[in-house]
Amino acid sequence: MKTAVKICGLTRTQDAALAMESGAAYLGFIVEAPSKRRLSAAEAAAVSAQAKGLAARVAVTVNADDALLTRIMAEMAPEFIQCHGDEPPARIAEIARRFKVGTIKALGIASESDMKSSEEYVGTCDFILYDAKPPKGPQGQDNDVRGGHGISVDWGLIGRSPRPKTFALAGGLHAGNVAQAISQTRAPIVDVSSGVESAAGVKDIQKIKDFMKAVQNG
Questions:
Q1: Which domains does the chain have, with CATH numbers?
Q2: What positions carry a catalytic annotation?
């Protein structure tokens, strides 16, 4: 089985072009959500425009309301909305129905109970993205930035747990560990952001090439 790649946190047109040229099937753009890689809906539309019809464009959101989603669909018209917040299954289904768009639900995984809870989303989205839970803030509070921390998931936990046929794996992936991650989880899609960067939101050509090669050899 060939593993597909999603390169996320894209902020520059040249990086989006490089991701496509390297064979990424999904391109992720963080739209008006807490992140060093944040873009406005208009910026995401401009950076992602070249990928229309060539790769699946993913607007990554966190607890987005209908007003924001309406703007995203009007300006960017992505193939997928990725929900990276606290959206319940009913909200994911509502977004898919109301906006006629594919949906991805990102879930932080740290325990067997997290994997069990994730089963609630099966059938409500196109696929689940298993990610690492973000680190706590300095005062122990929840972190508003949901992804891109470079923290790995317990691949063994995902590998031995019930999971849907189609899912994505994220969290601390890079060229040096992605083959092992695929081997342990049998992930059909892997998602990388910080693992192919020289700085937040700035993708590195060689790191992308090395990552894609490692996936192909995994």
A1: 4-217 (3.20.20.70)
A2: 8, 131
